[in-house]
Amino acid sequence: MASVSQKIDGLLAKQSFIRKMFEEGNRLRAIHGADKVFDFSLGNPNLEPPSALQDALADLVTHPQLGMHGYMSNAGYPDVRAAVAAYLSEEQRVALTGDYVVMTVGAGGALNVVFKTVLDPGDEVITPAPYFAEYNFYVDNHGGTCLHVPATPDFDLDIDAIASAITARTRVVLINSPNNPTGRVYGKETLAALANLLREKSQEMGRTIYLLSDEPYRKITYGGVEVPPVLSAYESSLLVTSYSKDLSLAGERIGYVAVNPATPEAEKLMNGLIFANRVLGFVNAPALMQKAVARVQGMGVDITPYQRNRDLLYKELTEAGFTVPHPDGAFYLFPKSPLEDDVAFVAEMAESLVLVVPGSGFGGPGYFRIAYCVSPQTVDGALPAFRAVGKKYFG
Amino acid sequence: MASVSQKIDGLLAKQSFIRKMFEEGNRLRAIHGADKVFDFSLGNPNLEPPSALQDALADLVTHPQLGMHGYMSNAGYPDVRAAVAAYLSEEQRVALTGDYVVMTVGAGGALNVVFKTVLDPGDEVITPAPYFAEYNFYVDNHGGTCLHVPATPDFDLDIDAIASAITARTRVVLINSPNNPTGRVYGKETLAALANLLREKSQEMGRTIYLLSDEPYRKITYGGVEVPPVLSAYESSLLVTSYSKDLSLAGERIGYVAVNPATPEAEKLMNGLIFANRVLGFVNAPALMQKAVARVQGMGVDITPYQRNRDLLYKELTEAGFTVPHPDGAFYLFPKSPLEDDVAFVAEMAESLVLVVPGSGFGGPGYFRIAYCVSPQTVDGALPAFRAVGKKYFG
Fold this sequence. Notes:
Two copies of one chain form a homodimer.
Chain A: H1 6-14, H2 16-32, E1 38-39, H3 51-62, H4 78-92, E2 101-104, H5 106-118, E3 124-129, H6 134-141, E4 145-150, H7 159-165, E5 170-176, H8 188-205, E6 210-214, H9 230-233, E7 237-242, E8 255-259, H10 266-279, H11 287-294, H12 304-319, E9 332-333, H13 342-351, E10 354-355, E11 357-358, E12 368-371, H14 376-394
Parallel strand pairs in A: 1-10, 3-4, 3-5, 5-6, 6-7
Antiparallel strand pairs in A: 2-8, 7-8, 9-12, 11-12
């Protein structure tokens, strides 16, 4: 007798490829030793949280306050929401109070909360491809459909493509900047053009089209590149983020959603988000981590090691003949696969004990993703294999 | 232009009563002072976490291990799952390994993960009334329907009522023991009768009907009452719980789901649960709290203060003329309302600055809930009002 629903059964069958990759990695590590396998498959930061965060945690748990581990408002602790809002007001150049912030179980939790709140059955969410594959599930969880429109060849937003995809069913345009998997940061002019389009289309369709910006990599940019503030660019904007990457707290599930006060019916939207946070079973963001991150607003890990990895990999791959769009942020490279079949190429790399992920998994077939949030040893150890494969395919 | 979906709009309108109650409480506190308002409305433990848990937390954050705040398997840390399984094997008298445990974002997260995994569209979940009202949302989130069957007059499971409610669409029977809001603990014979029924009906319907037991109050029982182990009682059983109540960690969102290894296709069910934990945006249970609770398996707060509150309130309310089913566990009393209209009665109590919740909110109209996880001062302060209202209605 079937133990899971038909839908989950189908999804489990489909994701067997990723599980196979994961098992293949474990098999290789068992045979060759963990230090001989160069794993670039996961976006799990290898840097430790900054000492300021560690100190805040230590102070909180060694001087416990009464009730600090108990329930609070489903939106989060008022002082934490206020601290986030104060920081965001500067970052986004829009005056915010804590009333416009809901603390969440990471950005994944925040995205589910947003979709639960705003999607009517059959509503569409448009996002550029390549994209973070979990978006499809998050939208589908709440009865929506995730539509992918191609990015430009250098992975910028293609405003015309987005314009053509918008219909009366469009509820959200979802962007991710710096982007996973491409590392692309969308510039101020691009955002302004998108905002103009969404204003015009909201008017035309007679419903608010939200711009939802997923920004967990915001603080991880290189060469002075800044991520322009989405709340300044467009009234009906929501910002979702987490402290997973910039504070290396991915396992602690702490993030938030912030709402532009200028959006129509903002108060009802906030009530909806808080309600959804509750009924989806999140209830509230983890209490202790709320208090900890409130004390280190604006801080982040020292990204020098990521920069070193990026610079070295970009240089070496380019020299080896790979086509690599230059990434301004996050800790991903998304080079063109020498084989049209990126899955076959990834399997070939695994034979050289280098684990990367096929672009197909991100709606970007013909490419592959390198997550360089790894030790310098992992990068250095993989270079010979990248050089060898470059020689084979590019001469 | 509408900011939220039609469904959320409707739900927000409906829950305005609870918000009004909450605002009324704040209004009364502002007028009369917090110490003059006796608030029994929330199931938020007033006891602090045990010192063993506080010590574990302090040790973990002052001796941080590399990567301890990062992603781990979506099912949780292997050592944490193993520790939970070892404890559960004794508690449930069923041999379990960590492979049958998924660490979750509290019991609310766990319930959503289970429903996402097992419910096909239109599937039904049967639960006895009165019930924890969030169940309705949790089931609806995943396309199911929550059916309520009446409990017996003393709030035990009514096996015949459950039998009559089972159809080909039934996927889960959900129980909560000790019960919120009644405090009822289901005995061994009752569980055995339910198990027999579910075996027979699973056979008849040709599909597994799961027994899902939500047990966050398991360690909070009085007078030596024990909660019988559900995994020993029925093959296709799942146990969901959290450390919210027994370790007073409600805000930290840490719990788990455990699966009976004897259920058909148990491995696929586990894969489904782990997958659902990921795609619902929980991703994994908070990392630090996983490590902390693993070190205090089997421990709980000293419930002497709850027992004192229960004994005193039960005695005083009974003496005042109230009909109060005797509760064996949790920290709730569920007395009969002197008025048929429990909402009106609750409003009357609020005039005496005593805040309780109408039974209607739990599918138990004509009753009201007292959450006695409060200070002795709150209980003592409320007694005169309970006595006065008893005198008024019962003479």
